């Protein structure tokens, strides 16, 4: 079954954040801290949809209703992510295990900058990653450093999605339809990466 894609033409604004499973235990006596890093992290989004009317509003309402609340998942090609120019057609050259934050790759053109995004997988295995260091290819090869860590091993030959990278999301709360005068609908979505 194909995963539905959120209609991007209706996105007004968004907030994206990387959540990490890090806890702090602070002594009330000395003020010292112990940091506990459990190694997991995921993306969370707050998406504000543009005011819609008529058929577009009903279509968007139907999209959220069809998700079935928290049980449904959807793909979100984040419109705030810029598509790189002449980056090449990079692919993985060395198997990397789950939990890693680096990938050896080849097939690069100009490379990417820290803060750029890429996608691995498709449909139910789609994962979004952000580079934490510039990618400067040596020949056509480069090692990527990124967040969050890999959720699954990545086989040799896996292509990096650079054109419209997406994230697989799940709602964290029901999406209310706020309906104003003249059939104006407003939708605000809270979602987290479906991991």
| Helical content class | under 10%
N-to-C terminal Cα separation, in Å? 18 Å
What is the strand content? Answer: 35-45%
Biggest sheet, strands in spatial order? 1-2-12-9-3
Rg over alpha carbons: 19 Å
What's the total number of strands? 12
Protein structure class: mainly beta
Subunit arrangement of the protein:
single chain
Low-confidence stretches: none
If helices are DSSP runs of H or I spanning 4 or more residues, what is the number of helices?
A: 1
The coarse overall form would be globular
Please tell me the overall pLDDT: 90
Largest sheet: 5 strands, antiparallel
What is the chain-wise order of helices and strands?
EEHEEEEEEEEEE
Task: Provide a descriptive summary of the structure in words.
With 195 residues, the chain is mainly beta. The chain is 7% helix and 42% strand. The strands form three sheets. It has a five-stranded antiparallel β-sheet with strand order 1-2-12-9-3, with no helix packed on it. It starts with 10 loop residues before the first strand and ends with a strand.
Properties at a glance:
mainly beta, 12 strands, 195 residues, 42% strand, single chain
Task: Compose a concise summary of this entry.
By secondary structure, the chain is mainly β. The protein has one helix spanning 54-67; strands spanning 11-26, 33-49, 73-77, 88-92, 102-108, 117-120, 127-131, 142-147, 166-171, 178-179, 185-186, 188-193.
């Amino acid at each position: 079954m194909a995963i539905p894609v959120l209609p991007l033409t209706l996105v007004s604004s968004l907030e994206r954040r990387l959540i990490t499973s890090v806890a702090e235990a602070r002594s009330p006596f000395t003020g010292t801290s112990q940091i506990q890093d459990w190694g997991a992290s995921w993306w969370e989004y707050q998406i504000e949809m543009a005011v819609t009317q008529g058929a577009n509003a009903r279509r968007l309402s139907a999209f959220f209703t069809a998700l079935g609340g928290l049980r449904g998942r959807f793909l979100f090609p984040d419109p705030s992510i810029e598509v790189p120019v002449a980056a090449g057609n990079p692919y993985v050259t060395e198997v990397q295990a789950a939990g890693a934050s680096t990938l050896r790759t080849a097939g690069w053109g100009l490379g990417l900058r820290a803060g750029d995004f890429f996608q691995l997988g498709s449909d139910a295995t789609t994962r979004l990653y952000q580079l934490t260091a510039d990618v400067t290819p040596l020949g056509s090869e480069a090692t990527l450093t990124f967040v969050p860590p890999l959720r699954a091993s990545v086989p040799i030959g896996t292509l990096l999605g650079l054109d419209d990278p997406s994230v697989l999301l799940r709602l964290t709360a029901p999406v209310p339809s706020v309906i104003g005068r003249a059939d104006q609908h407003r939708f605000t979505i809270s979602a987290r990466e479906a991991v």
